[in-house]
Specification:
By secondary structure, this protein is an alpha+beta fold. The chain has one domain (2-72). The protein is 25% helix and 27% strand. The protein has helices spanning 16-25, 45-52, and strands at 2-9, 31-38, 64-65, 71-72. The strands form two sheets. It has a two-stranded parallel ribbon. Strand 3 and strand 4 form a beta hairpin.
Length: 73
């Protein structure tokens, strides 16, 4: 089973990493795809997404937010 989670964001640069980490940890025995849809953020959200997902899709069994605010898969 695959659970699809769609997260619409607008100006969530400061919270998005933590949100993704929490969502990834929920239901640990369920495979998930997490889709983030940015609605023209102006606070650097889009740039943060591009930096953390440089090739688009990332896969991993866990997601951790490091001390610099970057995702580690």
């Amino acid at each position: 089973m695959l659970l699809s989670v769609i997260i619409p964001v607008f100006n969530e640069r400061q919270t998005l990493g933590a949100i993704l980490e929490i969502v990834a940890k929920c239901l640990p025995n369920v495979s998930k795809e997490i889709i983030v849809v940015d609605d023209c953020s102006r606070d650097g959200t889009r740039e943060w997404l591009k930096a953390n997902f440089p090739e688009g899709v990332q896969t991993g069994s866990s997601v951790i937010l490091d001390g610099d605010g970057h995702l580690v898969f």
